[in-house]
């Protein structure tokens, strides 16, 4: 998502309907924003998004937050096209956005680039190798960019928002025979899940403060958030909302 310091932003999503919905909701709140469909796995789409932002003024903030999860299950039976899909969005999408924004930031001598981490950025996660490994890559990629842009006036941030209650968590795909292991996910989301608005708040601190980089959430912070959510009744509500799990037989020969 590109943004200018004048408060005008450009949103993007692979779904045109999602873009229209987000723009309508933000516009109703008095926020100046436009949007366009963009597949971050396609460099041409990301360049077009940049051009749309520049048509509205300067480009000062770029957020790479497009992400997708893979099929839950062991790597040995993970479909190749599914693993490739995760890499295309989470890794190539982050690279494309960074590659498009950084030359502009370097030319103007300032800019904030934000890359979003996720589960796995600190280490391996069994049964989620595609997603977890991609987020580990995003962390190292971001830390490398920090080194390369040091002293240029550009700030490269990494942000792990924690568990965010979106369709990525509500709709899960599992390899056949492993779907029962996902039953604990409902409890975890109930304990530590948060809405998109709360999850995005630290981003404001990144781009409005003088702090050179974002500090990851500590374990104490996560536990405190979990207790607060339980007291708010989020766990009880989540228990009445079963996960939408799609089971895929990865061993079937068509």
From TrEMBL:
<dbReference type="InterPro" id="IPR036291">
    <property type="entry name" value="NAD(P)-bd_dom_sf"/>
</dbReference>
<dbReference type="Pfam" id="PF00106">
    <property type="entry name" value="adh_short"/>
</dbReference>
<dbReference type="GO" id="GO:0016020">
    <property type="term" value="C:membrane"/>
</dbReference>
<dbReference type="InterPro" id="IPR002347">
    <property type="entry name" value="SDR_fam"/>
</dbReference>
<protein>
    <submittedName>
        <fullName>SDR family oxidoreductase</fullName>
    </submittedName>
</protein>
<keyword id="KW-0560">Oxidoreductase</keyword>
<dbReference type="GO" id="GO:0016491">
    <property type="term" value="F:oxidoreductase activity"/>
</dbReference>
<comment type="similarity">
    <text>Belongs to the short-chain dehydrogenases/reductases (SDR) family.</text>
</comment>
């Amino acid at each position: 998502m590109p943004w200018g310091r004048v408060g005008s932003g450009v949103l993007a999503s692979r779904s045109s309907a999602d873009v229209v919905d987000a723009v309508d909701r933000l516009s109703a709140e008095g926020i100046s924003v436009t949007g366009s469909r963009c597949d971050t796995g396609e460099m041409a789409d990301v360049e077009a998004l940049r051009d749309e932002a520049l048509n509205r003024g300067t480009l000062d903030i770029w957020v790479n937050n497009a992400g997708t999860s893979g099929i839950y299950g062991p790597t040995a039976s993970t479909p190749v096209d599914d693993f490739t899909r995760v890499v295309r969005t989470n890794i190539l999408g982050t690279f494309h956005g960074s590659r498009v924004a950084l030359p502009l930031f370097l030319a103007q001598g300032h800019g904030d680039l934000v890359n979003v981490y996720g589960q796995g950025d600190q280490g391996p996660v069994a049964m989620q190798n595609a997603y977890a490994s991609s987020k580990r890559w995003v962390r190292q990629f971001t830390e490398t960019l920090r080194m390369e842009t040091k002293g240029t006036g550009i700030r490269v941030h990494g942000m792990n928002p924690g568990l965010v209650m979106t369709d990525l968590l509500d709709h899960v795909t599992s390899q056949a025979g492993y779907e029962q292991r996902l039953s604990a996910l409902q409890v975890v989301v109930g304990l530590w899940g948060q809405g998109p608005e709360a999850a995005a708040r630290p981003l404001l601190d990144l781009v409005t403060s003088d702090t050179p980089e974002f500090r990851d959430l500590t374990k104490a912070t996560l536990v405190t958030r979990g207790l607060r959510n339980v007291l708010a009744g989020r766990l009880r509500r989540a228990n009445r909302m079963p996960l939408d799990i799609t089971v895929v037989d990865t061993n079937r020969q068509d």
